[in-house]
Amino acid sequence: MNETKKASREPLFHVVKHAERSAKQMILFRLAAVLFSILAGGVFILLIGYNPIAVYGTILEGAFRSKMAFQATLKFTIPLCICALGVTLAFKMKFWNIGGEGQLIMGAVFATFFALKFPHWNHWVLIACMMVAGIIGGGLWGLIAALFKIRWGTNETLLTLMLNYIALHLVSYLQAGPWRDPAANGFSKIARFDKNAALDKVLGIHFGWIIMLVLVAVIWVYLRRSKQGYEISVVGESQDTARYAGINVKKVILRTMFLSGAIAGLAGVCQAAGSDMTLSMGVAGGVGFTAIIVAWLCHLNPGMILVVSFLFGILQKGSSVVQSTYGLSADSAAVLQGVILFFILGSEFFVRYAFVGRRKAKKEGAN
After folding, report:
1. Residue 170 CB partners (closer than 8 Å, separation 6+)
2. Which residues does 139 contact at the CB level (< 8 Å), separation at least 6?
3. Is the pLDDT of residue 197 over 90?
4. Does the pLDDT value for residue 27 go beyond 80?
5. DSSP-assigned letters across all residues of 11-58
6. Are 339 and 26 in contact (CB under 8 A)?
7. SS3 helix, strand, coil % of the chain, rounded to 5?
8. Considering only CA atoms, which of 231, 267, 234, 269 is closest in space to residue 252?
9. Phi/psi-derived region of residue 185, left when phi > 0, alpha when psi is between -120 and 50, beta in every other case
10. Which of 218, 224, 312, 335 has its CA 20 to 30 Å from the CA of residue 303?
């Protein structure tokens, strides 16, 4: 009787860790996830009264229909890819840096200081100072969480998340106070940068795309071929093992988090001086949070981060064209993106885990 009651209280299914899958199986799982995401998105489009094939066609056409559209796609890809590369360094160390958004913002803030205060400096001197300032700003913002972690054992996930909102409200303060544009006629905004402070264009797009490509190669080499990259991996696997091997764990955490924030800060410079030409509350626009998804989706592989960031750029640009073409609200476009992401990210669960029925779980336990 007791055994019957106990059995009835057990869940119908158990989640168990799956045996390691082959590379072919993982590719098939992810391809299936993409297919199901497209089908699910199509169902959503049908439910709101539109033709899925036409809408998907508009997304692709919107991202590539003209030179200007393709440039807009790349402009979204650049900060997303750079920021994802930044958080990858911290994640490789299993330091959960959820603060890419704030680090990007602080990079933009530090760069904006030079753009506003010294607009008539020599162009290349000014751009170099803005780049260095953005790197330092983002790096210092990332370093805060690392210092709290090694000194007081603070939860880095919560702290980096809260620092995002502090950075955002700092921008709000600056645009309503010290850096407010006198010609704004009562509006709280920061003046547009002088042309001298703009990133130069290469093939019609600001040279942030060159920085992005260089960083992809540098981060790949740094993580896989350098001593510091090896130390990051060891600290991520086990801090005790790292200490036993003679690695200074505190130094690695501080250095890696500075670099992680610095790279995200560089994305902020590209966004402020390459795309927006000003500093505003929307300078990050959720890029830092999306970068976390991209980094995990790509298993912290820099080459895959570049590819997936570009695909996100297509989806982002194409969705905006769908909004204007079909008169959809921004919420509908966001739901469509969310449905697609849900299935793609959900596939990662089934790569690692499986649902096992109650009876099968008992048999496996008995064996």
Report:
1. 105, 106, 109
2. 103, 258, 259, 261, 262, 265
3. yes
4. no
5. -SEEEEEPPPPPHHHHHHHHHHHHHHHHHHHHHHHHHTT--HHHHHHH
6. no
7. 75, 5, 20
8. 231
9. left
10. 335
Scanning 298-352, the segments in alpha helix (DSSP H) are 302-326, 330-352
Residue carrying structure tokens 């919560």: 158
* Encoded tokens for 280: 């505003």
Mean pLDDT of all residues in the chain? 88
Mean pLDDT over 248-274 rounds to: 97
User: Strand, helix or coil at 335?
Assistant: helix
Specify the residue for token string 């966001």.
334
Mean pLDDT, residues 205-210? 95
Residue 226 burial (CB count, 10 A)? 12
- Position 25 scores a pLDDT of 73
Give the model's confidence band at 4: pLDDT under 50 very low, under 70 low, under 90 confident, else very high. Answer: low
List all residues 6 or more positions away from 350 whose beta carbon is below 8 Å from its beta carbon. 18, 29
337 and 76 Cβ atoms separated by less than 8 Å: no
Residue 36 has pLDDT above 90, yes or no: no
Nearest-angstrom CA–CA distance, 51 and 164: 39
Which of 81, 42, 142, 100 is CA-nearest to residue 297?
Answer: 81
d(CA 336, CA 13): 30
| Residues 310/77, Cβ–Cβ less than 8 Å | yes
Q: Is the pLDDT confidence value at 246 over 60? A: yes
